[in-house]
Design goal:
By secondary structure, this protein is mainly α. Helices cover 79% and strands 0% of the residues. The longest helix has 37 residues. The radius of gyration is 25 Å and the shape is flat.
Length: 160
Amino acid sequence: MEDHFGKYLRLFGTIFFSVIGFILAFILLLLGIKLLFGLMSYIPWFTYVYTIFIILLPSALFIPAYVIYFKRTASHPSKVIRWISYTLFLAALISWAIFLVWDMGIFYKYAYTVIGMYHSYDMIFLIANVACFFIVGVMQAFTTAKEKDWMEKADSRFDV
């Protein structure tokens, strides 16, 4: 007969020490971030590297997403929706390229360390990009054929 008490004790110990380890790792991470950001004010080159990283972050997120959706749109069945999607995605990609070049120019001219000075963090611009994803997603979803759910797939396998 198996020793259930030993299994439960081992399970409790594993869960308990995992939670304690997670809390300790989280505290060490927060202390490391505090140390890193505290040192940033004393190391000017690190401030510039960090600022460039922050400037590139939104474009590094949105441009690949637009390219992926741009490629996936090629297989969409509706030609009108495909062209509307291509137009919106192309306009968004061009605007991201323009804003990225503009922001990098601002950084190299003035070296602002405040995010509000860069155009790719404009709230209206970011909202418009997220809305573009949702609008194109909804348009493409409404113009594709209904997908079979798991019950219909199971029924079609047995209908021979």
